[in-house]
Amino acid sequence: MQRRLTGSANDPRIKARYRREARFKAYSITALLVAFGIIIGFFADIIGQGYTAFWQHEIRVTLDYNERAERIGRFAIDEDLRDVVSRGAVRGIPLEMRNNPELAGTTREAWVPVYSRIDQYFKGNETLADDLAARVESLRDEGVIRSSFNWIFFTSGDSKLPEMAGIFSAVVGSLLVLMVTLAIAFPIGVMSAIYLEEFAPDNRLTQAIEVNINNLAAVPSIIFGLLGLAVFINTFGVPRSSALVGGLTLALMTLPIIIISTRAALRAVPDPIRLGAFAMGCSRWQVVRDHVLPLSLPGILTGTIIGLAQAMGETAPLIIVGMIAYIPDAPGGIFDAATVLPAQIFTWASEPRQAFQERTGAGIMVLLAVLLTLNATAVLLRRRFERRW
Amino acid sequence: MPQVKMQAEDLNLWYGQTQALHDVNLSMYDREVTALIGPSGCGKSTFLRCLNRMNDLIPQVRLQGRVSLDEEDIYDSSVDVVQLRTFVGMVFQKPNPFPKSIYENIAYAPRLHGTARSRSELDDLVESSLKRAGLWKEVADRLDTPGTELSGGQQQRLCIARAIAVNPEVILMDEPASALDPLATATVEELIHELKDNYTIVIVTHNLQQAARVAGYTAFFHMGQVVEFNDTDTLFTNPRVQRTEDYITGRFG
Amino acid sequence: MDKKGFSQHISQQYNEDLEQIITQVMTMGGLVEQQLEAALEALVSGDQAKGEQVVTSDYRVNAMEVELDDACISVLARRQPAASDLRLVVAVIKTITDLERIGDEAERVGRMALHLLEEDRQRSPMGEIAALGEQVKGMVRGALDAFARMDAEQAVRVAQEDIKADAQYDAIIRRLVKNLEDNPRSVPPVLDIVWATRSLERIGDRSRNICEYVIYFVRGKDVRHVSFEQMAAEATGDRR
Question: Is A340 helix (H, G, I), strand (E, B) or coil?
Fold first, then answer.
């Protein structure tokens, strides 16, 4: 019998084909590695720049709540330490003494942050005058100056003094904006999508609406900022720079995304399920409520989370509506002036001082961590509720 | 002479500009199985969907003529479509159980329509529906598992049980066994045989032997018209119209 | 009804199967006609050789019946024929049974012929017997012809020939009984002739059966056990 298969892999034509396929595979892997490399490089750069911000140096001082300290906080500290200690650490002492009169005449030991230049000196980013350098070195050797975790970064708002600056107010601002965005965009978006997908007749009007919604999703975000400025702030008088106006603006931006992803989730529910429900004597609303929505909910949630994650990273529109201001204190409500994480990062990035540079990196890391968490939640939700039908 | 349960009179239907049904006149008798046979695209499924107004869901459909259930016009403007569908149930070609538990699949509609409310009423209804569909023994111990985990034949019987649970008078079946293997098909056919004592059944099938096996009356559709309607024995041994003869002997399909 | 109606299925194989069956039926019919011809010659002219030939050849008719039965069952199983195809297969199954019986009757005639001596022949009404033989031979030919051409009207005409055959048969039997009364000692040979005549009459009956099957196949009407007037009406009535 003639052998037709054995040895066919050694045919020169076949071998050339194998080589072609191997080459193609190699190109694809290379492309992947390049892309991956860029991402790794990016992360490495950020982390390299920012990780040092997570700890800073502090000094153990004796706070002397004397008479002069009541007027100028600096006098509560030993004279030769006054240029080492951060100004921010002591400026609150007069107010503290006024609110707590029993402190007068007492002393207290405390760890307070050092002046940021000294902190940066220890981190190797700046230089000091020789004698100052010698002094702080010896203080560190004695253990009077130590490096510890930078809680201030997470508990304080912005400050002109980098050693006192933190992202807390930005985080609160971001949360408030996110809540407003969610509260407005989610119900409106989902209900619109349900109507368009399940109830609206398929005619020119609904097709036009669909085209326009898709276009809206592609509009540059800064346009929404301008819209927010013109409509919300000028016409409706919403307080500028508040979480409310930021949330309203971002809601406009997120709405098309939620509508599109909700419609996709609804469309993914197979028609036989709807037909079966209709045949059982369900009205259209019952079909949607009892059968289509439960099945499409994971998809809707995923789309919403992704839309919100995108909103969280938006800066340009929020700048236009004023959320770039200097906000030292966390906002108390949605009407108070606020700032958001990306805006805070933007502000810090504009500062020349090295201390702010490292805080920019740290801020980026925090923002990335939040975004990655949000996206991971979206993926988890999708996996968890994935149904076979 | 058997009683007429549902009747179509001078029924014409258009999908947009295309006419799909031409002057269809057909009587479906009470507690009999009527089979609708014919080549692809002949209008038999379209006609079936007219009987429970599922064609209303398709926007470009236009209907002319009368379809009546117990002599009441089902297309009358005062008729609630949802109500109609509790009297005329439907089973589809590809089994489509809800992605809920077996129990919920059956209990959902009765609970929705209010025909059974308390837990015990629903329990009884689920059990009796599954028994009548010949599925009880196989699933009694796992009523909380998803309906979609059953085999194809079981899923179809679940869909039939679901349809029975709302206590319809007519059950429409659109090629109910075409997605099933021969054993499951035989089970479903046996079920149809048992059901016809209590329900009027109209079944669309492209399998001539199936029509011959289950139906008491058969209507042959071709190009949107009813070419011949007769009791099954006569239609399959001695059809009156040449076109019917040609179709069932395989001279065209 | 289209004469070539059976041959236009979408499945070519199906067409060939059915054509093959009908061809086989005709072949079997031809064989049976040959047997009958030979048997009649043996009976009337005393040709011994022909007589033996009929007796030894009967197995061929039986074999064809078995083969055709198998072919028909195969079509039933594989094709689930409906309407005219179903009636065709049923008609064929019944026809070959009758053909096989006709073969048996021919074999009996041949066997009886072998027992007869020349003097027995001369004493018998061989002329009338020969006439009856021709009559039923014509009926067999006519029935097979009607089957081949799917002609219901011819089937009715051939079926009605049975009236004449029965009359001829009655006349011959009366003559033979008279012979017996006149010659009581010649019972055995007379009996043989009676059996042979009876076989011929039964061949006529069987031919009429085949005509009834033809009418059933072509017209879809069961005309067994009805009067000739009704049969004629059914056969000529317009189906469509």
Answer: coil
Spatial CA neighbour of B200 closest among B79, B95, B73, B51: B51
Whether A275 and B59 lie within 8 Å, measured CB to CB: no
Residue C101 predicted with pLDDT over 80: yes
| Lowest-confidence pick of A215-229, A321-335, B79-93, C226-240 | C226-240
Residues A285 and A336 occupy one common structural domain: yes
Neighbors of chain C by Cβ distance (3+ pairs < 8 Å) = B
In 3D space, the residue among B229, B181, B189, B182 whose CA is nearest the CA of residue B47 turns out to be: B229
A329 and A227 in a single domain? The answer is yes
Per residue in A239-292, pLDDT tens? 888 889 999 999 999 999 999 999 999 999 999 999 999 999 999 999 999 999
What is the C-alpha separation between B221 and B227, in angstroms, rounded? 6
Q: Which residues of B touch C10 (CB under 8 A)?
A: 250-253
For B28, list phi and psi in degrees, rounded to 5: -110, 120
Radius of gyration of chain A measured on its C-alpha atoms: 30
Domain-located, residue A371: yes
Q: How far is A211 from chain B (nearest CA, A)?
A: 21
Q: State whether B249 and C220 contact (CB < 8 Å).
A: no
pLDDT of residue A388 exceeding 50 = no
* Mutant choice from C6, C8, C223 vs B, greatest count of B C-beta within 10 A: C8
Any idea which residue has 């949607």 for tokens? A288
The shortest CB-CB distance from B92 to any of A272, A281, A286 is to A272
Which residues numbered 146-165 in B keep a CB inside 8 Å of some CB on A? 148, 159, 162-163
For residue A146, what are the domain limits?
Answer: 52-150
Cα B131 to Cα B153: distance, rounded to the nearest angstrom = 15
Amino acid at residue number B5: K
* Three-state secondary structure call for residue A1: coil
> Could you tell me which CATH class the domain C9-236 is placed in?
mainly alpha
Taking only the tens place, the pLDDT of each residue in A51-75 is 888 888 888 888 888 888 888 888 8
Whether complex ipTM tops 0.90:
yes
Calculate what percentage of chain A has a pLDDT beyond 70.
99
pTM: 0.79
